[in-house]
Design goal:
The complex is a heterodimer. By secondary structure, chain A is of the alpha+beta class. Helices cover 52% and strands 15% of the residues of chain A. Chain A folds into 2 domains: 3-54 and 286-428, no CATH class; 122-246, no CATH class. In chain A, the strands form 2 sheets. In chain A, strands 5, 6, 7, 8, 9, 10 and 11 form a 7-stranded mixed beta sheet that branches. In chain A, strands 1, 2, 3, 4, 12 and 13 form a 6-stranded antiparallel beta sheet that branches. By secondary structure, chain B is α/β, with parallel strands linked by helices. Chain B has one domain: Rossmann fold (3-Layer(aba) Sandwich), CATH 3.40.50.300. The chains are: A alpha+beta, B alpha/beta.
Chain lengths: 430, 239
């Protein structure tokens, strides 16, 4: 029998006992559906995190701090050391302190391999943003503004060479500020208020370059270099020299095409020199690990469902072999080889697996897209750009491969039983 | 001289051992010439079906040889054996063994499918075989929708579709009334006469056995007599 005949015959045979095939397909459908949905959930959430990664910081940037050396073994508070560098609180959670970085530290870091530049991370705390007297609103600025790539929904990204002060606002500022819509805000000039060290408030004019969805880390504005510099100067007016020259963290740039190994080596160098470097990927890494863990557990349940369905296939095929004993004997008497008989029955199982996974994946994609669009309009409306369930072809292909693989394994016992049948025993079978 | 198409040398078949030992066949020597029609006759349990199974290479003897065109069948294995079965033998069974939900055409095409003949060619061959048996108009029917006589003619069409040299028929008329049985017999003998296909018929129907060139009586696993029919009265084909 030719392979194509085996395929068509197997497909035909699987439809011979419709009810039985349907029930088995339903069992597989449930497993494949669950697996596709849980995978889709993982893909959706991880896609969102990846997009967020793009909007909160560039991939070639590392935040460097100088952690306080813990005094091992000693109990109680550490003894005061007048020579120790000043400790400053870092934005790494409450109670976390790091040592302040000075110009010497920056010079040390600049000498490390693979470092392109090191700049102090400046913290800018504007008071408000206002447009044409429509009310003042508090404004938070994204800490990591260097080398940012913004997921814009209106306007254009900053032009690198722009000397004019520009900013990107989150969508939720647009309406309160008095703009008709996102597009209307582009190119308009807003006023930012900022207080200096002496308590005097300055106002700075800036142009809205673009509008972005709020990120996982809240609605923060993104500034271009010109505006950052202007605001920092205004904020630092009247402050003592020491206060402006001590920084909690530094922004370290490395080559954008650096490999993971190079980044790891750089981090090791930093650690040896007494610093701690974290990339944006590191910061989100823990988050992704948790999501992946949850998805793995959910996938585990789906696979249990598929294994149960696998036994359904074994059962279906055993009955099928039993019913077709004479037919198998006849085919053998007519010169069909055992290997071809095996192929015939295992193809039938794989086809049932294919039907189940095609239906499961298809319905899961339809339901997933529906759930996703309903949720993004309702429950998850605050997380703009989040497609809770997304599907990528590779994971769908994996679901198909897995289900058809399980179906094939399930076919091994019944199909080899069929292949081993002796033609006369089969033909005598009443 | 051309060797007989089928022959056996001191063939025996034994089931079990010790107390439960049962000799189904003992010392069978047999030669069947090309184009001959042979009836194997005996009571149930006489070993006639076992003999047919061994002759058709569906079963292996405990001792002795089966020769096909003078070649020891035991030396033919694997793919060669499957090809030999497919090209040389056609089978007609008492219980038909038709695939119930498949069409008549599909049933007839089965041996050709196994022989890896292309779809267009096998359809043409199967239609030709059905036309030979006046079943051309039934090609698209389900096999289960036919009468007993029609079913057995479909089985014959299936047996001859790949132009076999030998057709084995196991009680071909056993499930048919005498009128349809006679029609089926006529069809088989017409094939034997017109196409020179060797017929090996296992039966306990004396009338059917009498129509064959030779009848071999089997009792308790031995050939008791082998009669060459002198009164062969092949009636006109009235299918």
């Amino acid at each position: 029998m030719k392979s194509i005949d085996i395929l068509t015959t197997a497909i035909g045979n699987s439809f011979r006992s419709r009810l039985r095939t349907t029930l088995t397909v339903i069992a597989i459908f449930i497993g494949a559906f669950t697996l596709t949905i849980t995978n889709g959930l993982g893909t959706g959430i991880n896609n969102y995190i990846d997009t967020q990664l793009g909007s909160i910081g560039a991939s070639d940037v590392m935040t460097v701090t100088k952690p306080v050396e813990t005094t091992e073994g000693a109990e109680g508070p550490a003894e005061y050391d007048p020579d120790a560098a000043a400790e400053v609180s870092a934005n790494q959670g409450p109670g976390m302190t790091v040592l302040a970085l000075t110009d010497d530290d920056f010079d040390t870091m600049r000498e490390l391999d693979g470092v392109l530049s090191v700049e102090p991370a400046v913290s800018i705390r504007p008071d408000y943003v206002e447009w044409e007297g429509n009310g003042k609103f508090e404004l938070t600025v994204s800490e990591l503004s260097a080398g940012i790539s913004v997921d814009l929904i209106a306007g254009d990204d900053f032009s690198a060479s722009a000397t004019e002060a520009q900013l990107v606002l989150p969508t939720d500022y647009i309406e309160p500020l008095g703009f008709a819509d996102n597009e209307a805000a582009i190119g308009e000039t807003v006023t930012i208020g900022i207080t200096d060290a002496l308590g005097e408030q300055h106002t700075i004019e800036t142009v809205i370059a673009g509008v972005q969805e709020p990120t996982l880390f809240g609605s923060t504005a993104v500034l271009n270099d010109a505006l950052s510099a202007e605001l920092f100067d205004a904020q630092g007016e009247g402050a003592s020299g020491a206060a402006t020259e001590q920084f909690a963290s530094a922004t370290l740039r490395f080559a954008p095409d650096a490999t993971d190994a190079e980044v790891t080596a750089l981090k090791a160098d930093l650690t040896d020199a007494g610093y701690a470097g974290t990339t944006v990927a590191d910061q989100l890494g823990t988050f992704t690990t948790v999501i992946d863990g949850i998805i793995l557990v959910l996938n585990g349940f789906a696979i249990i469902a598929l294994l149960a369905a696998g036994f359904g296939i074994v059962n279906t095929l055993l009955m099928s072999v039993q019913e077709r004993t004479r037919e198998i004997g006849l085919m053998k008497a007519m010169g069909m080889s055992g290997a071809r008989i095996f192929a015939l029955f295992s193809t039938e199982a794989v086809f049932i697996g294919f039907l189940g996974s095609a239906l499961g994946a298809g319905v899961a994609m339809a339901v997933g897209s529906l759930i996703s669009s309903v949720l993004s309009g309702g429950l998850l409306a605050d997380l703009g750009g989040l497609q809770i369930i997304a599907f990528d072809p590779a994971s769908i292909a994996l679901v198909f491969a897995l289900v058809m693989g399980i179906a094939f394994l399930a076919a091994v016992l019944p199909a080899s039983r069929a292949a081993r049948q002796s033609p006369i025993d089969s033909l005598r079978y009443e | 001289m051309k060797p007989p198409v089928l022959s056996t040398r001191d063939l025996s078949k034994r089931y079990g051992s010790g107390d439960t030992r049962f000799d189904a066949l003992q010392g069978i020597d047999l030669d069947i010439a090309e184009g001959e029609s042979v009836a194997i006759v005996g009571k149930s349990g006489s070993g006639k079906s076992t003999l047919m199974h061994i002759l058709a290479l569906l079963d292996t003897p405990t001792a002795g040889q089966v020769l096909i065109d003078g070649v020891d069948a035991a030396t033919v294995t694997g793919t060669a054996l499957n090809t030999l079965r497919n090209r040389t033998f056609g089978f007609v069974f008492q219980q038909f063994f038709l695939t119930p939900n498949a069409t008549v055409l599909e049933n007839v095409m089965l041996p050709l499918k196994i022989a890896r003949i292309g779809s267009r060619q096998r359809t043409a061959m199967a239609r030709a075989a059905l036309a030979d048996l006046d079943l051309a108009d039934k090609a698209a029917n389900k096999a289960t929708d036919l009468s007993g006589g029609q079913k057995q003619r479909v089985v014959i069409a299936r047996a001859l579709v790949n132009n076999p040299r030998i057709i084995f028929a196991d009680e071909p008329t056993g499930n048919l009334d005498s009128v349809t049985g006679a029609t089926v017999e006529d069809t088989l003998f017409a094939l034997n006469r017109e196409q020179g296909i060797t017929l090996v018929i296992v039966t306990h129907d004396e009338d059917l056995a009498a129509r064959c060139d030779r009848r071999i009586n089997i009792r308790d696993g031995r050939i008791v007599d082998s009669l060459t029919s002198t009164s062969t009265s092949n009636r006109a084909v009235s299918a």
